[in-house]
Amino acid sequence: TTAATFYDAIGGAETFRRLVGRFYAEVATDEVLRPLYPEEDLGPAERRFRMFLEQYWGGPRTYSDERGHPRLRMRHMPFRIGPIERDAWLRCMHIAIASIEPATLDDDHRRALVDYMEMAANSMMNSPL
Ligand code: HEM
C-alpha cells in the first residue's frame, strides 16, 4: 500500500520525535544557538517545532490548533538570525536527518527533507550578519 502523506511515508510520529529530539540534543550544546533560546527548558520549544513539522508534512494539525497560523518569519524576528545562526541551525539539522536510517528515510524523502530545511533556514534569516 502507498502511504498517503510524506508524514506517514517516513514513519509518522515516531520518526518526527526522533528527528526533532536529535536536533534539540545538538542545539543544547551549540554555543551559537543555545543562547538564543529564551527558556532554560528546551522541551517546550522542541515540542512546538515537532508539531509544526508534523503538520507541514501532512500529519496531525496540533500546531495550528495550539498556536494558530505559523507565521514563522514573524515569530523569529525577536532573534537575530544571520548566516552564522543559519549555518549552526543547518549543522544541527543535517546531523538529525543523518541519524534517521535509510530503511525509514529513503533517498527521495531524505533529499526532500534536506531541500526543505535549507530553503526554510534561508528564508528565516533576518540579518545580513
Ligand atoms: C522557534 C531559532 C529556523 C521553526 C524558534 C525559537 C528560536 C528559533 C530561538 C524560539 C523557541 C521557542 O519556540 O520558544 C531559530 C534559528 C533558526 C531557525 C536560529 C535558523 C535559521 C527555523 C526553521 C524552522 C523553524 C527553518 C522551520 C522549518 C520554528 C518553530 C518555532 C521556532 C515552528 C516555534 C514557533 C512558535 O512559537 O509557535 N526558532 N529557528 N525555525 N522555530 Fe526556529
Helicity, as a percent range: 55-70%
Broad shape? globular
Tell me the total number of β-strands: 0
Taken together, the total number of domains comes to 1
Uncertain runs: none
Oligomer: single chain
Bound molecules: protoporphyrin IX containing FE
Write the CATH fold name: Globin-like
The CATH class is Mainly Alpha
Instruction: Profile the largest sheet.
Output: none
Mean pLDDT: 97
Strand content: under 5%
Please, could you describe this protein's structure?
The protein contains seven helices and no strands. It is mostly helical. The protein has one domain: Globin-like (Orthogonal Bundle). The longest helix is centred in the first third of the chain and has 17 residues, at 12-28. The chain is globular and about 45 Å long. Bound molecules: protoporphyrin IX containing FE. Residues 33, 36-37, 39, 45, 48-49, 52, 67, 72, 75-76, 79, 81, 85-86, 89, 120-121, 124 line the site of protoporphyrin IX containing FE.
Secondary-structure blueprint:
Blueprint: H1 6-9, H2 12-28, H3 43-56, H4 62-67, H5 72-76, H6 83-98, H7 107-123
Helix pairs in contact: 2-3, 2-6, 6-7
Bound molecules: protoporphyrin IX containing FE.
